[in-house]
Amino acid sequence: MGIRQILADYSPFNEQEVKDRELMLRYLDQFDDLFKRENEFAHFTASSWVVNRDRTKVLMVYHNIYRSWSWIGGHMDGETDFLATAIRETKEETGIEQVQPVSQELFSLEILSVDGHVKNGKQVGTHVHLNLTYLLEADERQETSVKPDENSGVAWMGLEEALSKCNEPYMKGIYAKLNDKLNRMQ
Question: Domain Nudix hydrolase, which positions (predicted)?
């Protein structure tokens, strides 16, 4: 299924998602390279909110650039399968081997601002991530490992603890939205 269909089929959860979906569709009309980070203004990314089977904990990484506990995700880099990218990034960033989608459906969407920073010795300009998030599940007893070029910690934590350990104000709101959606499913 193409990105336009994914966005058309998705029922926004709140006003933030209504506006961000509208902008994503507009950017699709304006740019032809949104699946590659070579588009230095905006590009698509995929994230995952990885929960345990009881839905009481979430798997977070300590992000080296943002110096904050964070969800898991990454760039599409030319791929168009968002769920596959979310799963791949989860495995790469946490070291877990077994993870599966709770649903094949999109769980959340958001446009995220990314401040300029240095990555791998190169300057990256300020830009936005057009992010699609999937709800994934994993067994919290699996062994985890850091991905040193991206994170310096991997930990399961309670849903509220994940909010309190995040020191990015906008992301706290996104994580609260994800927890709210998760709680409404139960």
Answer: 41-183
